[in-house]
Please model this.
Amino acid sequence: MRGVPWWGVVSSAAAPVLMVAGWTVAAGLQRSFDPVADTVSALAAPGAADRWVMTLTFVVVGGCYFVTGLGLRPARLPGRLMLMAAAVAGLMVAANPEHPGVSLPVPHMIWGAAGCAALVAWPAGAWRRGPSVPWGLRPAVSAGAVAVLLALLAWFGTELVTGGAQAGLAERIFGAAQALWPLAVVASCCSASRLGDRAGRVQQGVALAYEADGGARVHRLAAERRGE
Model:
């Protein structure tokens, strides 16, 4: 099974770090912002202080998802394409910010919903079967990841629809989880690759030792026959 290239590892590790750093910095630049109640989309909305910080975060994190999808070679293609589609949706979210006073920012909502759906579903399209499959791509683990992400998304959606006081908190927990799962899958692939290389070296060593032992036996038999 092919491994994940170094640039795929870097992009998967950078996504959660950049996401959390981006919304933390952007929130700190606002005069009034409640991270528990307010969503991160408000940080990129027209009228927000230094809105480019959150907009750039959307773009860079989306780029990281896209690169990770390209590099996640051990996963099945449908899952990788879903992750890359989520990246494109993130870019469109950045290009269609919500506007103050607009209760239903339709383009922003459509692209946001598409990105969330892809980020929840991609583990289901990426799983594989087999004894050598990394744990992050096994069916049961992938199903568990989808269930957790779906539950977090449902919480966030409920907060938005009901006007709850924890919409920002729900969004941040969901956002962190969706960014950390690709990293967890990549880490499992790297671990499986190292174990596979180690097992291959052990098997090669056993084969060489067997060949050497067989050669020694042949020489002993030849010597015994000459002695006869």
Observations:
- The helical segments are 6-28, 52-71, 77-95, 106-126, 139-162, 167-227.
- The radius of gyration is 25 Å.
- Residues 6-227 form one domain.
- The CA atoms of residues 28 and 103 lie 25 Å apart.
